[in-house]
Amino acid sequence: MQRIAFLTLLFLSFALAARAETFTDAAGRTVELPARVERIMAAGPPASVLLYVLAPQKLAGWVHAPSSAEGKLLLPDASKLPELGRLTGKGNAIRADIVTKAKLDLIIDVGDVSEEYAALASRSQNETGVPYILLDGSLAKTPEVFETLGKVVGEPERGTELARYARMTLDKVNAGLAKIPADHRPRVYYGRGADGMQTGLARSINLELLDALGAVNVAAEKGQGGLTKVTPEEVAKWNPDIIIASDPKFAAMARSNPAWSGINAVKGGRVFVQPALPFGWFDGPPGVNRLMGIIWLEQLLYPDVFPTDLRKEAKAFYKAFYQVDLSDAQFDRLLQDKP
């Protein structure tokens, strides 16, 4: 009888330990999580980066498969994961076939938290039966997201380690900005794509890095929102002190366009291209990869306040976040901006 009682207690304790946990996500949704989370799908590119950095062994696949150049700066096994595509298809329909085929334990999305995304998460969860959580992708929430998701996916120590680095990076830039008067902060234009005529409005998550660095987004005068199209005439009128390009072709055009020769950024030789491997430092996607962008831009915008050994910092970041050793040659190629 004692042996039976012991086995009964042992079973009950195991059952309690394996019981699903309740999780409240950034949208306030209550989600039942499985006791073990082994295969996770990212609903968008920022979530792909977050999962790769935190728990690459649990990433079921990529929204977009890495290119050959991107794969060289990722762990070999992770770079070979399949492309799952986006969770939603035409008309925002849930692609349940992807979820079924991937045999998922969890779906996560990270970025803007809105009623629209919350509704999509709930609909996906109802249609597929796979728990779906939303996380706040704002830069300020990065340490909290690392800590929270680290616990969810069974990597609390790594989550704490990454959160500590993120918090240190954000605290450092905030302390430095406190020394810089408002009228000493640059006006910046960020151009996306080969023609550079797509940018972000005020409060766009794609240009959040400018806010974090105290810079002025010249396109903010067009109002609040997400991404928008602008004209070359508007950029010339705004006369930014600095131009940041996501594509080297746009940077080359900006430097050689006679109509832009009078723009402060062009006259001063301050047209820069964001390094973009394996993920963008400024954007592309607007995820935790932007922490490297803070380190890059703080010394670019305010070299007197942030004297930084960028090579040393990049090597440390790539080792801690992407788990690869960045060589000197690879670093040099990252900083090249030729089309």
From TrEMBL:
Key words, A-Z: Signal
GO biological process: cellular response to iron ion
Signal peptide: 1-20
The keyword Protein biosynthesis belongs to this UniProt entry's keyword annotation: no
Domain Fe/B12 periplasmic-binding, residue spans: 39-305
Organism superkingdom: Bacteria
Keyword field contains Signal: yes
Annotated InterPro entries: ABC_Transporter_SBP, ABC_transptr_periplasmic_BD
SUPFAM superfamilies from the UniProt entry: Helical backbone' metal receptor
Matches recorded under PANTHER family: MOLYBDATE-BINDING PROTEIN MOLA, VITAMIN B12-BINDING PROTEIN
Name of the protein in question: ABC transporter substrate-binding protein
